[in-house]
Design brief:
Elements: E1 2-7, E2 12-20, E3 27-36, H1 38-42, H2 49-68, H3 74-77, E4 80-86, H4 90-107, E5 111-115, H5 116-122, E6 135-140, E7 145-150, E8 157-161, H6 167-177, H7 185-192, H8 217-230, H9 235-263, E9 268-272, H10 279-292, E10 297-299, H11 303-306, H12 311-319
Parallel strand pairs: 1-4, 4-5, 6-9, 9-10
Antiparallel strand pairs: 1-2, 2-3, 6-7, 7-8
This protein binds 5'-O-[(R)-(carboxyoxy)(hydroxy)phosphoryl]adenosine and zinc ion.
Length: 338
């Protein structure tokens, strides 16, 4: 089966072609093209939906055209089109969804509607992997923080999630307080690297709660108070705040993920979403596995597949091949885990 994946939920416009073997579902990546309007949002401290949507319109056809160059006769070789239908920004989503519907109509191909959050999980299923089940997946992106249970490769059950800000949002909002460009996650990771001591010890919201939920909105208030006290934070202050922020966010993420892994006897822990690109977080998870002396194995996508891309959308379609007529496909910005 050969799938064209399309992802346009936010500021990335991406198309990818994946091929699978019928018997073992091993995925072969044929192409992966990404254009982004990120630089246009860097100065404004966040995504401006109108600008993101206009850029999607500009990029979508050239990106798809480029991704299909690996095929001799795309119209014959593509079996289905996988497209992100939500969650995301409605203007951005519509560009991908309407383009997929048009190709589906003209080429007479089925469309596979994909939940973007599922995509972040299936970014781990590309190439050789040995993911064993049950698995606990932690999706940590700019808009979401969710823990899910996977009993097998196609079953996803939501366990809990953030009640307010997402983990990535906590990075980005702190970045705004510290005058760092958007998105602040990668910059905060770098700034924190020189620091060894958690000077500020920001609160660890809900770390001891009996559920699998998170809350990160209090963190920005805590950082705000410190920034106000400092008036003009020095470079060292910014580094120390970055380190302490990471420590607070990571402590909660790790605690809750291991709590879920224990509760469901997970053989694998899967990370996905932009925040999982953070190398310190990956190291912390690995250390925790050693400390706990558990058999659980950690899976994290390659750095480029942690953030938004169409490869993960096509991969999700391979494990959830809900082929649908183009007439029945609609964008749903509020889509969540069922
Ligand atoms: O998954 P993603 O690309 O888009 C959404 O679906 O939201 O995630 C973007 C988020 C942003 O909040 C960004 O600051 C964060 O991921 N991020 C990071 C890192 N790289 C991206 N956070 C922490 N450390 C990183 N290295
Ligand atoms: Zn995402």
């Amino acid at each position: 089966m050969t799938i064209l994946g399309i992802e346009t939920s936010c500021d990335e416009t991406s198309a990818a072609v994946l091929k699978t073997n019928k018997n073992d579902k091993r995925i072969q990546l044929l192409s992966n093209v990404i254009a982004t309007s990120l630089s246009l949002h860097a100065k404004t401290g966040g995504i401006i939906p109108e600008i993101a949507a206009r850029e999607q319109v500009k990029f979508i056809i050239p990106v798809i055209e480029e991704s299909l160059k690996v095929l001799k006769n795309p119209k014959e070789e593509i079996d289905a089109i996988a497209v992100t239908v939500g969650p995301g920004l409605i203007g951005s989503l519509l560009v991908g969804v309407e383009t997929a519907r048009t190709i589906g109509f003209v080429w007479d191909k089925p469309i596979i509607p994909i939940n973007h959050l599922f995509g972040h999980i299936y970014a781990n299923f590309i190439g050789e992997n040995n993911i064993q089940f049950p698995a606990i997946a932690l999706v940590i992106s700019g808009g979401h923080t969710d823990l899910v249970l996977m009993k097998n490769q196609s079953s996803i059950k939501w366990l809990g999630g953030t009640r307010d800000d997402a983990a990535g949002e906590a990075f980005d909002k702190t970045g705004r307080l510290l005058n760092l460009p958007y998105p602040a996650g990668p910059r905060i990771e770098k700034l924190a690297m020189d620091v060894e001591k958690d000077i500020y010890h920001f609160p660890r919201p809900m770390i001891g709660s009996g559920d699998f939920d998170f809350s990160f909105s209090g963190l920005k208030a805590a950082v705000f108070r410190e920034v106000q006290k400092l008036k003009t934070p020095s470079d060292d202050d910014i580094k120390n705040i970055s380190f302490s922020l990471q420590e607070a966010i990571f402590s909660v993420l790790i605690k809750k993920t291991f709590k879920a892994a224990k509760a469901f006897n997970a053989k694998s822990i899967i990370l996905g979403g932009g925040v999982s690109a953070n190398q310190t977080l990956r190291k912390r998870f690995e250390e925790k596995i050693k400390i706990e002396n558990v058999e659980t194995e950690l899976f994290v996508p390659s750095k480029s597949l942690c953030t938004d891309n169409a490869v993960m959308i096509a991969a999700a379609a391979i494990f959830n091949p809900e082929e649908t007529d183009w007439r029945k496909i609609t964008a749903n910005p509020e889509l969540y885990f069922d």
